[in-house]
Design a protein that fits this description.
Number of strands: 28
Strand order of the largest sheet: 2-5-6-7-4-1-3
Shape: globular
Structural class: alpha+beta
Strand content: 15-25%
Low-confidence stretches: none
Mean pLDDT: 88
Number of helices: 22
Radius of gyration: 27 Å
Largest sheet: 7 strands, mixed
Distance between the termini: 38 Å
Helix content: 25-40%
């Protein structure tokens, strides 16, 4: 059941334009109840998240009684929108607004009247999406320290990279489904293992180098160089057992069909994929597995295997002298739980979308885009079956919603098999009517929906969002090799068996595709932001164990991290990054031309140079 709370949002532009800040000792007060200002407050609906649950525990003795009250937090949190202030150059009026805005971050905060009473609010935290939208959460002053303690599990965090600390704290605002399971948060059921690292030598790269100064604004120049690349394998992903995966799947009471989950816990984030590792290990006569601290666990007891890269608080936990068992005990003590913030799609895709950035990258001729002799009318496309061009799939989709009665009928009848639709959903009723009498298709309510679908495709076409055979999937490292790493300390035989089915080179494994097979595919970063965020790869032929234990992961595309495919996809990792798997022969043909200029070599280390954007040395500051 989806839980939402009403949270007020105020524009900082409006707030600052109506207050006076003459000096740093001035008290900042804003009366949002003033009739002339009430319209400036937006009452937004925000999904339940770990931070909201922590606040509920502080303001109520019986959380079950208040959990579903939408307005229970409307006086606790305030979102302030700083759009138009810190995202502008400090000149003229903007410079004055930026100066005044800084006063909102003083320790005493700002007084705001939201319900016939003034309360003091202090700048707090924000999620990644809030940061992208220039929003920051302010919290009631009396709850600031208690919430901070609960968020940090009572740990003391000293000097650190503040940008990362803020980002990890912001995970507490990620909306998701809370999973209440007795005894889940204990060291026998959740274990952490290390991430192997490897060095890929002599990689041809294109990068930038600064001018050697330590100025805030520096000059950079583009250079081409050969360098060694360090790879963190399985970065941001882990494994979940089938019994726990059924608990994470909100539709498991109907049919268990979700198998990949984005999870959140205090300072823990990433994606876990359902693999019956206990049965696999039993098949290979492996009964015990070892965690990162050298402790041994029965494989049958473990439900969640996290990698160290998923556990962002690993260093802070160690600095505070805590064991993993104590860390989880504190999670239980403060009422934390496992949250699911995202999961795989239910149905395999036949089509995915390309965008204009990708079209700018691929080498496309006029004839490949759309041959001149093809009829201009889209309704004629159904008669051209023996030729391929780039816009054809989009035109065919438009044709199906406007002219193809069979496709229109199938579109409505597909609602009958949609497990996310309640039995009383109107869309299901309409589908049942179509099943009884096709002539209902010509009723206005059906025709309007079809026209809207067709118009949506047309609008996408105008923005160069073309359809192509393929799908969107979670990017993953080779999970078979992850299992091999886990058993390596235990059984040389099991390690050899699993490694014999692992991947190597520019190949990928995408179980249960809904599109026709091809010799070559394009893997494309989603969203595609810059040029050359794509690679050419061949499909991997899976072995029996891979098919048996991973063949159900229909929303995952596995690659070999040592092939540098993730680095070529804009530095992607495996904590929820999405990749488009393009199966369209005409698209792959256009992408392949870029590779052909580098000869007949097909490995990702020998063709297009790797783009590497170096990071500036992070600033280390005291978190207190």
């Amino acid at each position: 059941m989806r839980i939402q709370y009403t949270i007020p949002e105020i524009s900082a532009l409006a707030l600052l334009s109506e207050i006076e800040v003459r000096n740093e000792n001035d008290r900042i007060s804003y009366d949002a109840e003033d009739p002339s200002r009430a319209y400036r407050v937006k009452w937004t609906k925000q999904d339940d998240c770990p931070m909201f649950y922590q606040a509920l525990q502080l303001i109520s003795e019986d959380i079950r009684e208040v959990r579903h009250k939408e307005d229970i937090l409307s006086q606790i949190f305030v979102y302030i929108d700083f759009s138009g202030i810190f995202d502008r150059k400090p000149a003229g009026r903007i410079a004055e607004l930026q100066r005044k805005a800084q006063s909102l971050f003083r320790p005493e905060g700002v007084e705001i009247n939201l319900n016939q009473r003034f309360h003091q609010y202090i700048a707090f935290e924000r999620s990644a999406s809030m940061s992208r939208n220039s929003k920051l959460c302010f919290v009631r002053a009396e709850l600031y320290e208690p919430l901070k303690e609960r968020m940090m599990l009572g740990m003391t965090i000293g000097s650190c990279q503040l940008s990362k600390l803020y980002a990890y704290n912001g995970l507490m605002f990620t909306g998701g489904q809370r999973l209440e399971r007795p005894n889940l948060l204990n060291e026998r059921r959740i274990i952490v293992i290390d991430n192997p690292k490897c060095i890929i030598p002599n990689v041809e790269t294109i990068t930038v180098e600064d001018d050697g100064t330590d100025h805030a604004v520096r000059g950079y120049s583009r250079v081409k160089k050969t360098m060694d690349i360090e790879i963190t394998e399985f970065d941001g992903e882990g494994l979940v057992s089938p019994r726990l995966a059924r608990g994470l799947d909100p539709l498991s009471y109907k049919a268990h069909r979700h198998h990949s989950f984005q999870i959140r816990m205090p300072y823990i984030k990433g994606v876990v994929h359902e693999v019956d590792f206990a049965s696999l290990f039993q098949e290979l006569e492996v009964h015990m597995i070892q965690d990162i601290w050298g402790n041994w666990h029965s494989a049958d007891d473990v439900d969640l295997i996290l990698t160290k890269s998923m556990f962002k608080g690993f260093g802070w936990m160690t600095e505070n002298g805590l064991t993993w068992a104590e860390y989880l005990r504190r999670c239980r003590e403060y009422g934390h739980a496992l949250y699911v913030s995202g999961m795989d799609a239910l149905e395999p895709q036949e089509m995915t979308e390309l965008n204009y950035q990708f079209l700018n990258t691929a080498a496309i001729t006029d004839e490949e885009f759309r041959p001149a002799d093809i009829p201009a009318e889209w309704y004629m496309i159904g008669r051209v079956q023996d030729r391929q061009w780039l816009t054809k799939a989009t035109e065919e989709a438009y044709f199906e919603f406007t002219e193809n009665l069979s496709a229109q009928r199938d579109y409505y009848l597909s609602k009958l098999d949609d497990p996310e639709l309640d039995i009383t959903d109107r869309r299901r009723y309409r589908a049942q009517l179509i099943g009884k009498n096709l002539w209902f298709l010509f009723e206005p309510i059906y025709q309007k929906e079809l026209r809207d679908k067709a118009e949506h495709i047309l609008n996408k076409f105008r923005n160069a969002n073309l359809l192509a055979a393929g799908d969107n999937r979670y990017l993953s490292d080779d999970l078979m090799r992850l299992l091999a790493v886990i058993v390596q300390p235990v059984s040389a035989y099991a390690y050899r068996v699993l490694m014999s089915e692992s991947m190597a080179g520019a190949v990928f494994y995408a179980p249960k595709p809904a599109y026709p097979p091809n010799e070559m595919y394009t893997l494309l970063r989603n969203p595609h932001i810059a040029r050359n965020e794509e690679v050419i790869a061949r499909p991997f032929v899976p072995g029996k164990l891979r098919e048996k234990y991973m063949g159900h992961l229909h929303y995952v595309v596995m690659v070999d991290s040592r092939s540098l495919i993730p680095e070529r996809l804009g530095g992607a990792d495996y904590d929820g990054d999405m990749v488009k798997t393009i199966a369209s022969p005409i698209v792959n043909q256009c992408v392949r031309k870029n590779y052909d200029t580098y000869g007949d070599k097909r490995t990702n280390m020998d063709n297009i140079p790797l783009l590497m954007i170096p990071s500036i040395e992070p600033l280390i500051r005291d978190a207190n």
